[in-house]
């Protein structure tokens, strides 16, 4: 198998036809056809079949295209790695982050990195566990920064703890219960779950159970902290959010932070990457910068 053959297969899978695939690759249709035919000879299996819409993958094609995407991304990263060693100014980098590092860490860390990698193209996306596992699987991200389960992510990943932040309860500004200071007094409200239930959203249940209370049922589920905050600001619902973010929205006079008497479990933020991954020089620089910035945070407890 050659990389040009795999690129042809991925292009056809994405475009749905050989003509469109050739156009996206900037080569002729016969060149794509030849590449695919040779690939089928190499793997000794039929990878495509024709249908009314153009072409589609056989079960063998579906299996191979998943591997092809990973191989091509690994090849691209290897080329970037060498290119950055030769001329350490550019390249690309993809990072997933939860809301707290987005606010407290990444702006300063990127500023440090861009002093050397002046033309580095960085793609940032808000994503948390378990969503990041799928992003690692398909090679979409180089590493992630955010909360992970207390037991870690297993033997295939390294989780490097950075800092912990307190959680706060927020209500809209002027809420009739904003003066109360007990989770029990607030338990009858509608609560918004932020993040997956088996990820950061688990904090909701942990906080109530630690206070000896039955967790309220959450009927509203937001994938991002920003969405949660805007929902809270325009409803009678409550939610747990990281305290630095809660205080920033409180200063904007959108929400009130409730001073509850019960302790809330901290949210631990970690750097996460697969053990088998190899970071480019730019990736190593950002990894190091994130650690440096995390050690000097205010409003968080470095680990």
Overview of this protein structure:
With 303 residues, this protein is an alpha/beta fold. It folds into three domains: 3-84, Orthogonal Bundle (Arc Repressor Mutant, subunit A), CATH 1.10.10.10; 88-163 and 268-302, 3-Layer(aba) Sandwich (D-Maltodextrin-Binding Protein, domain 2); 167-265, 3-Layer(aba) Sandwich (D-Maltodextrin-Binding Protein, domain 2), CATH 3.40.190.10. The protein has twelve helices and 13 strands. The protein has helices at residues 3-15, 18-25, 29-43, 59-86, 99-104, 106-113, 131-137, 183-186, 202-210, 225-233, 243-251, 281-295; strands at residues 48-51, 54-57, 92-97, 121-126, 143-146, 157-165, 167-172, 192-194, 220-222, 239-242, 255-258, 267-274, 301-302. A six-stranded mixed β-sheet has the order 4-3-5-12-6-13. A three-stranded antiparallel β-sheet has the order 10-7-11, covered by helices on one side. Strands 1-2 form a two-stranded antiparallel ribbon. β1 (48-51) and β2 (54-57) form a beta hairpin. The protein is elongated and about 70 Å long. 36% of the residues are buried. The mean pLDDT is 89.
Residues in helix, %: 40-55%
Assign the CATH topology of the largest domain: D-Maltodextrin-Binding Protein, domain 2
- For CATH, the homologous superfamily of the largest domain is named as Periplasmic binding protein-like II
Annotation field: number of helices: 12
Number of domains: 3
Whole-number mean pLDDT:
89
Uncertain parts: none
**Any idea what the radius of gyration is?**
24 Å
């Amino acid at each position: 198998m050659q990389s040009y053959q795999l690129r042809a297969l991925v292009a056809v899978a994405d475009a749905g036809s050989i003509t469109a695939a050739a156009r996206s690759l900037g080569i002729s249709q016969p060149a794509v056809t030849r590449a695919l035919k040779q690939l089928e000879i190499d793997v000794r299996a039929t990878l495509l079949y024709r249908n009314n819409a153009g072409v589609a993958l056989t079960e063998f094609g579906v299996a191979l295209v998943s591997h092809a995407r990973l191989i091509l991304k690994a090849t691209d990263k290897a080329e970037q790695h060498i290119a950055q060693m030769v001329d350490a100014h550019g390249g690309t980098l993809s990072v997933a982050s939860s809301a707290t590092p987005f606010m407290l860490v990444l702006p300063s860390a990127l500023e440090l990195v861009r002093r050397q990698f002046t033309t580095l193209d960085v793609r940032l996306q808000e994503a948390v566990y378990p969503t990041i596992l799928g992003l690692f699987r398909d090679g979409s991200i180089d590493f992630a920064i955010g909360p992970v389960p207390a037991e870690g992510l297993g033997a295939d990943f390294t989780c490097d703890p950075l800092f912990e932040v307190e959680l706060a309860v927020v209500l809209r500004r002027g809420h009739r219960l904003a003066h109360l200071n007990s989770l029990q007094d607030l338990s009858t409200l509608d609560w918004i779950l932020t993040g997956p239930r088996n990820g950061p959203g688990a904090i909701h249940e942990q906080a109530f159970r630690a206070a000896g209370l039955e967790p309220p049922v959450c009927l509203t589920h937001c994938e991002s902290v920003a969405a949660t905050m805007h929902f809270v600001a325009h409803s009678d619902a409550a939610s747990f959010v990281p305290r630095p973010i809660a205080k920033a929205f409180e200063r904007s006079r959108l929400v009130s932070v409730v001073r509850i008497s019960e302790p809330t479990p901290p949210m631990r933020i970690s750097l996460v990457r697969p053990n088998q991954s190899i970071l480019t020089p730019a990736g190593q620089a950002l990894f190091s910068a994130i650690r440096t910035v995390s050690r000097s945070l205010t409003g968080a407890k470095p680990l």
